[in-house]
Amino acid sequence: MITRANRYAGVLASPDAESMRPILSSWPESKSTCYRFCGTILSNWHPAPMEEGWVTFGFCACPDEFSESELGVIYRTLLERCTFNEFWHAYDEYSLIALFDRHGLKDARLRIPNLEVVLNGSPRASVWYLKQFVVDETESVAPRLSVCADYGFDKCNSPSLVEDLKRIYKQLLLEAHVDPVKLHEVCIAGNLFRFASGFMKFKKAEKKRSARLMKNPYPLTNFELEVMRGWDGNLRVVIVSRRSLFSFYILTNSSIGVFRQ
């Protein structure tokens, strides 16, 4: 994998992890991320759900594992047609879609629903990290702050409640095949439980508990939306006081969450 990545990136160094470490540490984070990703793709693999690249390179948009494999092939074809510098600069500038199109892969990438939404999105909607959390079977992915705030995991005070809520979203995304973009729209409208009730039946006790857990701070007021405009991908916490309302805006790892009291 390292040898393939070195050849593609034009690194004139001994192809071993030890010699690559100081080189990678001297690069921008986005460049070293792309170096590792290219090594994976050129070895006929693609990122798994527990890896950050599963989201940032758009595999979270794939509806199933077959589609993920197809996207891996599309990326491999792209790497055969563009230079490493072209690739990592496009990744860094959120212009991978334009790079696909420029190298004759528009029809291929259009077969992956919502790929453009993910790759052009900064910050990315928290639904993609929700999907990563529920799809991962290794239990190595923890829900991000934004996922906790948006989808109710911040109210789970026990592992069993986390699993109950996780099961609901897993059923929506993987069994009912709900479009993640639609789920995101429902989330920011504050209608998660009502929406979920259209796809599954809740027992009486479960209904009350799930409704409480899935209640979130949305929809946001115009004032709150204005506060959140123009943020970059760095961690920030903004506290806004309006009369009796306290809002905590958290933007972490390119994903937004809101807490209110």
TrEMBL record:
Q: Which domain of life is it from?
A: Eukaryota
Name assigned to this protein: Uncharacterized protein
The record lists the organism as Rhodonia placenta
